[in-house]
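In response to reviewer comment 3 from the previous cycle, which asked for concrete evidence that the modeling workflow produces usable outputs, we include below a single protein chain processed end to end. The sequence was submitted unchanged, and the resulting structure tokens are shown without manual editing.
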Amino acid sequence: MSEWKAKRFWQEATVEEAEGGWQVLLDGRPVRTPLKSAMVLPTREMAVAVAAEWAAQEDVINPLAMPVTRSANAAIDKVAAQHAEVVAMLAAYAETDLLCHRADAPQRLVDQQNKGWNPILSWAEATYSAPLVVVSGILPAVQPPASLAAYADAVAAFQPFSLTALHDLITLSGSLVLGLSVANGQVAPITAWKLSRIDEDWQIAQWGEDEEATEAVEIKRAAFLHAASFLGLAQGR
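The workflow returned the following structure tokens.
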């Protein structure tokens, strides 16, 4: 038996202002999330992007071709419903932030990490008055409680749609500081992604590429760049 698939049932996808934001209409009927919540979007830019995804669907609806819609659904149905839990989970990345854990050898790798990561940590320290301890080798880093609290406050300031994007920026890179640097426009998304890959790219340069691993990394890279784009839409860019 073939799996049932949802088919296109509308002629036109439009955008209109709604209470608390913007909404997308399919033949005049507002789009709802999978949990049947009203899809009220924070900016017109995001609503236009969602409408474009619905308009681009053909006979059968393909959710994989609708990344902005899927992220908006996640923001409403998941992140908004457990905002405090998401904030706590992301803030905890400061305890083991990728940028704070350095190799002790070889020197060329150490130099790459220092060159790429030190300026980001310096920016974060100045921006949030929150220095982080850097360690090398397998030593754990014990971070200052005041810094951890400052980063938790910074994450908590993000509203559900922006927090949804920040979630992916942090979890895909392994770095709270890199995620915040992208969110604040300090570092270009593609640059931040490359900085998060310094260790892995070093290993590839030494031992060569694995085709399956390369494909997996490309999927993550695309998701990271989408998160940055979704954040821009949430901020009206």
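The chain has a mean pLDDT of 94. We consider this sufficient to address the reviewer's concern, and the full set will be provided in the supplementary archive.
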